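Bumping with the actual sequence this time:
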Amino acid sequence: MSEGKRFRLPSAEREEAEEGLAERWSRREGGEPVVFAAGEEALAADVVRRLRLAERLMTDVLGIAEAKIEEDACRMEHVLSAGTAEAICTLLGHPRFCPHGSAIPRGACCAASRDKAEALLKPLDRLSEGDSGRVAYLVSPDSPDAQRLLSMGLVPGARLSLQQKRPAFVVTAGESTVAMEPAVAEGIIVRLGGKP
């Protein structure tokens, strides 16, 4: 980016610097042109990553309502080490978006460990036939495909079981049987375990 105000990393306490970087990153995502000084963009991405992973952990695993996570997720972000953030990311199946729909910056674990570690949350297209669980969230809840799935009962919290993967993905959810293309299945994130 060649336009916009150049930001320098504050010399105050690290916590204040992180808060400032997270705020600037949000403004950048919101469309305001921002140019980071050398090294600041990576630091900002790390801060935002830890915050958004904390939000996903609180909503997807702990079951805390999205409206109640902001303050605690912010506190948690400040104490998460890089290793703990990667462990949370792996546990959650390397989520791409926070509960509010904003992108989660990718970490080293996303490329290196995605297929090696067993995650609690997985996209439907990565499940095996016979696997079951609950819908944790939809990656693009406002898309026409997602709206169709929501109308068929595939809402967060709904139990489902994957019946087949080819020629189309077929799941049962309650009394419904739903068929979908692979591109739709990859946007349904499932919390594994339990019988439908």
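The tokens above came from a reply further down the thread. The longest strand covers residues 132-138.
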